[in-house]
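in:
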């Protein structure tokens, strides 16, 4: 996240403006998914209702983690493009 902010500092756009790009939206989405993973992990450790369905919640955590991993790989490859390439 800090790398993203520092990389866009010299682009002439504001901090909030840099998040309005496809790359910035992807960074925000990945950070939101990671916060969801953290929240579920904490609840699995302290809440008995979550612990009763631990297998389901671990599957949910794994699925969200895979989605975050795919988003990270698209960021590494240069962003997400919805246009059809030739």
């Amino acid at each position: 996240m800090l790398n993203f902010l520092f990389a866009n500092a010299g682009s002439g756009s504001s901090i909030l403006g840099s998040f309005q790009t496809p790359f910035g939206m992807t960074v925000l989405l990945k950070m939101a998914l990671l916060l969801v993973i953290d929240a579920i992990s904490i609840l699995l450790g302290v809440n008995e209702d979550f612990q009763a369905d631990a297998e389901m919640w671990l599957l949910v955590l794994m699925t969200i983690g895979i989605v975050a991993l795919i988003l990270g790989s698209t960021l590494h490859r240069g962003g997400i493009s919805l246009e059809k390439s030739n």
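note: Helices lie at 2-9, 15-18, 22-46, 48-52, 54-77.
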